[in-house]
Amino acid sequence: MVRIKLFGVLRLKTGFKETETNVSSVREACEIVSRATGWNEKDLKRCIFMVNGKQSKLSAALQDGDELVLMAPSGGG
Amino acid sequence: MATNYGGYMGKVMLIDLSTGQTQEYPWSDRERRLFLGGKTMAAKILGDCLSPDVTPLSEENMLVITTGPFTGSGAPSSSRFNISTLSPLTGILTSSNCGGNFGYYLKKAGLDALIIRGKSPSPMWLEIQNETFTLHDAGDLWGTMTGEAQTLLDAKLQETTGNGKPVKNGKIVIGPAGENLVSYASVVSNERLAGRGGVGCVMGWKNLKAVTVSGNHTVNVKCPEKLSKLNKSWFRYLRKHPLTGDQLPRMGTAGLVSIMQMRGQLSTKNYNYGQFDDFDMVSGETLAEEYNIVNKGCLSCPIKCARTVEVDGKAVKGPELETLGLLGSGILNHDLPAILKWNYELDELGMDTISAASTLGYAMEANEKGLWDNGLSFGSIDGISALWEDIAYRRGVGDELANGSRWCSEKYGGKEFANHAKGMELAAYEPRRSVGLGLGYAVSNRGGCHLNGGYMIIVEGLALNVDPQTPHAKPDFTVIFQDLMEVVSSCGQCLFTTYAFFPPPLISNPQSWYTKLFCAAVPHIGGVLRLLNKFPRVVCFHLPVIFNQSKALHLVTGMPVTFGSFLKAGKRGYTLERYINTRFGITAKDDTLPSRLTDVPQDPRDETTKVPLERMKKVYYHARGWDQNGVPTSRTLKKLSIEKR
Asked: What is the pTM of this model?
C-alpha cells in the first residue's frame, strides 16, 4: 500500500487530504487522485512530487510502504 | 518644502515631544529622487540626524514614520508605511513596515513623513489633523491593550474632532509591552503590526501611547490616466498569478508550513531540526480548513493574505507562517488553537511574535541543557499565556525574556543556539536547507530578517527548486533580491507584489523543461548577475507585465525611471543603511549566524546541510562594492550619491 497525501492549494481546492492505495508509480497515483477528486489529471501531473521526503519525477516507481506527497509551489513570508 | 513630483504631499514634519514644538523638516526634490520614501528616506533622515554616540532609548533617538510615493496612489498593495529608528533590540538601524491604513491617512493629513524625537514628561497621544498637531494627555489610555486603545481613540476623536460623528482616521498605538520597554515591542495599526526591531519600545520610552492621523488632502499623481490603465492590468496580473492570486489569498503565509516541512526548512525545536512530525496539525491547510473565517487584506490590496480566526468567540487576525512555525514546530507544540490565542494575546500586548517565540525557544533549550533553570520545556505549553504577560509587564523570568535571545544567551550561555543575527531573532525558515537565505539572515541590515535578507528561500524550495545547498550565485542573487525589495518597500508597496516577478508558467509547472532548466541554470549565472549589480543602469527600459513598479514610479512621480535606475535606487538604500550601521560599529564580524547553523550539519550524513557563510560573504561584499570588512568603499558611496560622513 502507498500512502498519498495532498498539501497546499491542491488540498484546499480538491478537499482531498490523503488515502492509502495500491499503485506502482507516481503517474498512476495522479490518475487515482484525479478519479477520486474529479480534479484535472494534467494539473496533478504538473505539481511537486515528494516520495518519502525526496523530490521525485512523474515516472518514478512506488513501492509498498512508500509515502507520496503532491503539492503546488508556494511563496511569500 | 513643496514638490514638483507627483505622489508626494511635499511636507515632512518633526515634533519634539520634550518641548511639544513642531517644525517642518527640509526635504528637497533631489532627496525625493534619490531616496524615494519609506525605509530609504527614513535611513537618510536618521543618518543625517543621529551621531554614533546616540543610544536607542534616548531623547536624541527619533522615530521616523514614512510613506512612499505609491501610498494612496491607487497602485496595488500600496497602503504601507514604515517606521525606522535605532533599535533597542539590536542597537543599530531598524525599519519596520506595516500595512493597514495609517500610511494612507498620513498622506490625507498632508504629510509624507513624521519625525518624532525627544521624550514627553508624561504619557501623551498625538493627534494630527490636516497638518495640525495636538498633544493629548494619555493617562486614561496608558496600560490599555492595543485593541482597547484603538477603540478608545476612535471614541475620543468622535467626541472632539468629529463633533459626535465618527472620524475616518489612521492610528498607531503601543500596548503594555511598549510601555514597559520590552526590547521587541511592536507598534500596532488596526490589526497590522510594525512588529520587528522594538519600534514600540522606543515609542513607549518617549511616553507616546498613540498617534492618530486624519485629513482631507488628496494624492496627486503625474500621469493619472496612464497610471489607472497600468493599475488595471497590474491588479489583473496579480490576481491571476499562482502565488499572489491563488496561494496567498487562500492560505496566506501560513500555507508555507507544509512545503517547508517537505524541504526540511521548518525550524523545529529551536532550529535543532528542519522537520516536525506533527507539522500538519499547525499547517496553513488545517488553519484554512478548520479555523479560518474569512480572508482580509489591506487597503488597495488584491492579494488579501490575512486570515481571520475565532478566539474566545471573537473574530481576530490569524497567525502568519512565522508564528505558526516558531510557536509550533519551534517549541514542539501541535496545539493550533493555542497558537491562535497566543498570536492574539501577543498582538494585544503589542510585541513581536517572532522575537518572543524565538527567545522562548532559546530559553527552553537553555533549560533543557541545564544552563538556565527557568521552568520552560519543549512541548509543555501550560502557562505560556501568563508568560506573555510576564514579558510585557517585565515580571520574573519574563523580565529577562523581554530583552531578547542575544541578551539572555550572553547572561546564561548557549550562544550557539540563540538564533539571532545582530541581535534580531531569525524567522521560522531553517537556513541549513536554504543556504542563500542563511547568507541573507547574516548580512541583513536590520538583523536576522528573511525579507531584508533577500528571501532567497523563494527560489531555494518554496516556489522554485534551485539547489538549496549550493552557494554558487547565491550572493549575487541575494544582492538583487535585497535591492528590489528595498526599493519596492521605499515606494510604499507590499513586498508580496515582488513575488509576481516570477512568470506564472515557471511557478505553476514545476515539472516543465523550462522550470527545470531555469532552476538548473541559476547557480551558473553568478557572473551575469554580478555585471547587472555593477551596472544596473544598462537595463534602460521597463520590464513589462512581471515587474510594473519602475513604470508605475515614473507615472506616479514623473521622475525619469527605468528598471535599471529603479534597481540602483534599491542599491542606494541598502548601502546607505549599511553605511549608517557601520558608523554604529557594524563590520563583517557582525554578519554572523549562531554556530549551530554554520558548523553543525542539519543532516549528520550530509556535510552540505550547513551554511557556508564565510565563503558566500566574501562574494557578497565584492558584489556590493563593500570592502572585505563589510564597509562600503568610498567609490561605492560616491557612485550611489551617498554622502560620506
From this structure: 0.97
